[in-house]
Amino acid sequence: MNIDRRMFSLIGGHRAPFILSIAASGAAAVMVIGQAASLSRLVNDAFIEKAPPAALLPSIGFFALFSMLRMFLGWLGHAEANRGTIAVRKDLFGRLTGAIALRGPLYARSLPSGRLSTTLIKGVEALDAYFSQFLPQLVLALLAPLIILIAVFPVDPVSGFILLATAPLIPLFMALIGKRAGAMTDRQWETLSRMSGYFLDMLQGLPTLKLFARSRSQHDAIADAGERFRTATMKVLRVAFLSSLTLELVGTIGTAMIAVAIGLRLLTAGLTFQTALFVLLLTPDFYLPLRQLGLKFHAGMEGTSASKDIFAVLDGAGNGSIDRSINGPIDGPEPEGHQKVPFEGKNTPEAAPFHRSEIRFEGVSYSYPGSTEPALSSLTCAIPAGRTTAVTGPSGAGKSTLMNLLLRFQDPCSGTITAGGRPIGEYPVEAWRELVAWVPQHPFLFNETLRLNIMMANRSATEETLLRAVRMAGLEELVDRLPAGIDTPVGEQGIRFSGGEAQRIALARAFMKDAPLLVLDEPTSHTDPELEATLQRAIGTLMQNRTTLIIAHRLETIRSADTILVLEGGRETATGTHRELMESSAFYRRAFLEHGESVQ
To answer: Which residues belong to any copy of the ABC transmembrane type-1 domain (predicted)?
Structure first.
């Protein structure tokens, strides 16, 4: 059977519509009995008893009443099942996106983009048939035959026993065929996911494919993937049609057996005409829910296949909800010369004392899955409160890993990271990130207006605060030349902006957020020298009295830091000021002498 107990857990707090749908379906089955009873009595009175037309009116009225009630209850059952399914899908989509957001960008990047989008969109949509069709039909297939058996056994035990004996054949054949069909549907879903991922990958890499004249070969590869998906789909449909034929055949044979048994007893006067007609009218409705269950069974299989990827995402996030509370402030000694942050932006009461807290890495190690070498190995270092710390080192030294751990995009394999003596892991993820402003090297811009892209850092900010952030990030000239000013759409992934402009937008977000901890991943790497000087002054203002971490690649950024950490092989090999490191760190001195303006 196509039943997964975990699927029921997705219903969550949306049970009411499904319970009402089940109740309506059960009541509709009772109306079927009322229809058969009133119709059999009407035909018996009209053709056997030769009753006058006036005597037929009660039977006609009851038949019309039961028919209308059956239609209404059937509609109500479908409507409530659909309402419940919409609620489940909406809730599930929120849980999936929340789970992905909770685990962070590293988790999202570890999955093929096409497969992830297929799970979020097509996968959630595939559950529609499971919840709105298969589950209600499963309950109806249990209730309706049972109710009909209760009505048939007292008036015709022979027919009751025939119905009882033949009914299990339908689920039996359905299970036998469904097991094979389920495996085929799993392969079909896997083929669709791979094809989606491959197609998205080709679209993203289209400029490279055109440049190397490989677009034609990839066109043929996509055509082959589409053909494999078509073949897999046709195999599933072939089994589905075979299943439908088998179930219809079993139902037809059962109905024929009832008809023969009733006909023989009518000839020997062993059964009245009204009873015989009553049983015959109920027989198709006895098999109908079972036959329809077979059809809905195949409709729900895609949902079952999709649920495997859905549960993989939910289980990977630990099924934990995001706690939006803060368990108290991060306290610590206030640095000397502390002054109020000059920028008027978002500064929550929980965040206010954070700038007084030193951040420490104590024996922190991290290894990426499948890697034999640790990205960080027993790292112990400090990020002083209210000061600027730069981290540099060769490629693969662990700079990005250190940043990701601080942003809580991943958790250490061992060791602890503390702020003010308290492990940051004790803070809810969202609460911790409320205290952090991040300016990445390659910012992501959403397909919204420039205003919304900046204000996502602080939705409650005033227009004055927004315009000040634009000015301090050096975006005024850019805004002035846009068609609709700050309300101009930025396009898909900010296509209308250069890399330097995108970085300035990210910098404006940091000004808007006004968080006590600032993380900069080389924020001026895509700017010209003139603009860089302007932004350096703006960044200097932003960094005042904040705990700042800079992932450094360029020498100018490094020289101005209060403390510079040199990482090599996942370990801290030197720390100090620029002048001190020129004397104590061979890597730092060599990088300065060889590259001048760049430390990679």
So the answer is: 19-302
Residues 67-87, mean pLDDT to the nearest whole number: 94
Evaluate whether residue 344 is within a structural domain: no
The residues near 435 (Cβ < 8 Å, ≥ 6 apart) are: 330, 350, 351, 354, 515, 516, 517
Query: pLDDT tens digit string along 155-199?
Result: 999 999 999 998 888 777 777 776 677 778 778 878 887 787 778
Nearest CA to 467 among 347, 345, 293, 597?
345
263 inside domain:
yes
**Helices marked H in 104-168:** 105-110, 113-118, 124-129, 135-152, 157-166
The reply to whether 465 and 596 lie within a common domain is no
Torsion from C-alpha of 19, 24, 29, 32, nearest 10 degrees: 180
The 10s digit of each residue's pLDDT in 193-247 is 778 777 877 877 777 777 777 777 787 888 888 888 888 888 888 887 777 777 7
Give per-residue pLDDT as tens, 383-409. Answer: 998 888 999 888 888 998 999 999 988
Q: Clarify whether residues 131 and 182 are in a common domain.
A: yes
Of the residues 514, 543, 563, which one is the last residue of a structural domain? 514
Alpha carbon distance 240, 296 (integer Å): 10
Domain check: are 253 and 166 in the same one? Answer: yes
Residues 523 and 555 in one domain: yes
Domain count, the chain: 3
DSSP secondary structure letters along 18-69: HHHHHHHHHHHHHHHHHHHHHHHHHHIIIIIS---HHHHHHHHHHHHHHHHH
